[in-house]
Amino acid sequence: MTIEKIQVSARANPSQRIIATGIVLAFCYWAASVVMTLLLSVLLAYLLDPLVEWLESLHIHRAVGSLLVLLLALALVAGLGYMVFDRADHFAADWPKYSSVLRQAAAAVERRLERLEKRVSEITPGEEQRGRLAVRVEEQRPVRSLLLRGLGSLYTVLLEATFVPFLIFFMLAAKRNVWHATLQLFPTSQRTRVKQTLEEVSSVLRGYVVGNALVALILAVVSALFFWMIRLDYPFLTGAVSGLLNLVPYLGAMLAWIPPFVIGLSKWKTSAWPYLGVAGMLSFFHLIAINVLVPALVGRRVQLNALAVTVSLLFWGWLWGGVGLILAIPITATAKVICDNVESWQPVGRWLGA
Fold first, then answer.
1. How far apart, in Å, are the Cα atoms of 121 and each of 112, 114, 124?
2. Model pTM?
């Protein structure tokens, strides 16, 4: 009887794990805003923690150091936001110059589509139009629906942004208490391994955030210098936006083309060579970043293979959208560290890093 019970329990374990995984994923979907806010706060807290520890080495209380570091980070973000807003304000003043060119291009595309539709309608027989029932289409109000949808998403973003600074402060100030309480959840024989796992997770997350920040900064500076050399309007604003878009997985090489293409419409009206040159140079920057900078500054930290990264980006991007693309690699890298330190899950960790 004992053997039968053990066999039933062994068969039940996979089912229980599948059910538990489904519950966790359902919670991540339905409580997406809460989970994303917490994970972003954790990621930023790991980024700022070295500065808090440095202030603590200068005999500054950890709570005071956490507050100072958080205020410094908020001031830096506000300063960068003001600079971007100032450049964007100048760009908005010149927008009619670019919008007229965009309208002309859109009108040309629309005329070509109308010609194509006219040719297709000439091929199809007109007899099919007879005998059709009249269908009454209710009047739609897309502007109102888009406005309400935008206000809802804006409210969610503002709500999350309001909680993030408080969460970061509490995580930084109470880090030691949280770590001690976490270790108390495990038996004494396992606490050394748990502490080692937490330290590895901290190193991985901090390395990921710092590495990506450095890559984004390098791409923004190089792109801005390139746009300045070719005398493109608003080179630094365009370079910052293009450099950030260049980091988007898989689509970044093409998304980075959009800002300089829009700005260059007023100058490059008659020739396609400037567009090809900008696209080629930005694609070159993307290849250098993906094949040289990211492996050197980020890859050594996360230690994930290309297949695991691709699957994680697809899954978390589908689940959480743009924020999921940001959190996909940190979540997968954390899962790999945990698998590497749990004996029964080590095969999964080896597969993620193979």
1. 14, 10, 5
2. 0.68
